[in-house]
Amino acid sequence: MKIRKLLSLLIIFVFGLAIAVSCTPSQPTSNYASTTPAKTSPIQMGFSAWPGWLPWQVAQEEKLFAANKVKVDLKWFDGYLDSINALAAGQLDANTQTLNDTISSIAAGAEQVIVLVNDNSTGNDKIIVRDGIKTIGDLKGKRIGVEVGTVDHFLLLLGLKKAGLSATDVQIQPLETGIAAAAFVAGQIDAAAVFAPFTTKALQRPGSKELFSSKDFPGAIPDHLVVTRKMIEERPQDVQALVNTWFDTLDFMKKNPEKSLSILSKRAGVSVQEYKQYDAGTKIFTIQDNLKAFSPGKDMHSLSYAAQEVSKFLVELKLIKTAPDLTKLFDDRFVKTYSQN
Question: Does residue 189 carry a pLDDT above 80?
Answer without folding.
Answer: yes
